[in-house]
Amino acid sequence: MSALPPALVAAIERIADVDELLVALDFDGTLAPTVDDPASARSHPDAMAAILALEDLEKTRIALVSGRSIGNLASVARLPDSTILVGSHGAEFRFGGAVSGPELDGDERKMLDRLYAAVETVAARYPGARTERKPAGSGLHTRMSSPADADAARADALAAVAALGPSSGITERYGKDILEFTVREADKGTALDVIRHRTAASAVLFVGDDVTDEDGFAVLSGHDVGVKVGPGETAASHRVADPQAVAELLALLAGLRERKAASPR
Ligand SMILES: O=P(O)(O)OC[C@H]1O[C@H](O[C@H]2O[C@H](CO)[C@@H](O)[C@H](O)[C@H]2O)[C@H](O)[C@@H](O)[C@@H]1O
Predict the structure, then answer these.
(1) pLDDT tens-digit map of 104-115
(2) Which reaction does it catalyse (predicted)?
(3) Considering only CA atoms, which of 242, 187, 243 is closest in space to residue 51?
């Protein structure tokens, strides 16, 4: 029996029938179960199989929309060049294998170097804290820190970044056990608009688990379907429990879309 809510199954049946479909998926916590080491995250095998089946279909495009850099995302997601990748929350894109963004100017590059140094200096002070360099920013991971150390590391990092000056242009965003800083602001909502336009999608299915995915849910409308993974407030119309349920949802969609391709009206 399906673990998917009946209203979601009905929404998937409807969206499977649109002409040009864009399936936009967050990676960590959505396709890939959360793990302590970001480099070892992998898509649920059933989700991977469904994505590859969808990739084979005409009028169906798959996009991963992630906070990871494109290079990092490509190495963990291991999908074909035909898969659209959005990295750094929308500061980078990969279409047809060609990567664009973030194309920083000289001042931004200098500030990025200062940002890397500031966040890495802070991380070195706290057990379990680690950093992730991105093309336009730096992430402070605290999953492996005690709650007290995580709180202190975040406060310390916010102060260190504030000390880079009010005109640094740096903004921050929170995710699951990560505080990120960037010299080039981007968000998944703007990114979804870009790929919707680029693929001439009739409708978008967007699935995500984190607060950063709410920007994506906020731009959905019309025949689009938004699915939140796990607990927490959301603007999405549907919810599933975990990446296992996401895999089931994608398998359902792939089967319906294959049937539509085999017997077009
Ligand atoms: O937008 P996403 O694809 O969900 O990326 C968000 C962040 O994901 C990664 O960190 C998160 O997942 C790790 C692996 O499960 C976990 O260890 C970490 O605690 C999470 O924050 C990635 O490393 C970040 O760069 C992304 O921004």
Answers:
(1) 999 999 999 999
(2) alpha,alpha-trehalose 6-phosphate + H2O = alpha,alpha-trehalose + phosphate
(3) 243
For residue 240, the tally of other CB atoms under 10 A from its CB is 23
User: From atom 8 of ligand 1, which residue's Cα is the shortest distance away?
Assistant: 28
Q: What is the pTM of this model?
A: 0.97
Measuring CA to CA, which residue among 54, 18, 16, 12 is closest to residue 202?
Answer: 18
Closest CA to 67 of 235, 187, 218, 216: 187
Helix (H) or strand (E) holding 227: strand 225-229
**Structure tokens belonging to residue 77:** 């997601």
Rounded to the nearest whole angstrom, what is the distance from the C-alpha of residue 263 to the centroid of ligand 1? Answer: 40
Residue 193: count of CB within 10 angstroms of its CB: 14
Report d(CA 185, CA 188) in Å as an integer. 11
Res. 263 pLDDT band, cuts 50 70 90:
confident
Cis peptide before 102 (omega within 30 of 0): yes
CA dihedral of 193, 196, 200, 206, whole degrees rounded to 10? -150
Complete domains list, the chain, with CATH: 6-102+186-262 (3.40.50.1000), 106-182 (3.30.70.1020)
157 falls in which pLDDT band (50, 70, 90)? very high
Among 28, 145, 182, which residue has the most ligand 1 atoms within 8 Å of its CB, making it the best to mutate? Answer: 28
Residue pair 89/187 in contact by the 8 Å Cβ criterion: yes
- Closest atom of ligand 1 to 72 CA is 25
CA distance 17 to 111: 48
Q: What number of H helices and E strands is found in the chain?
A: 8, 12
**Dist CA 48 CA 53 (whole Å):** 9
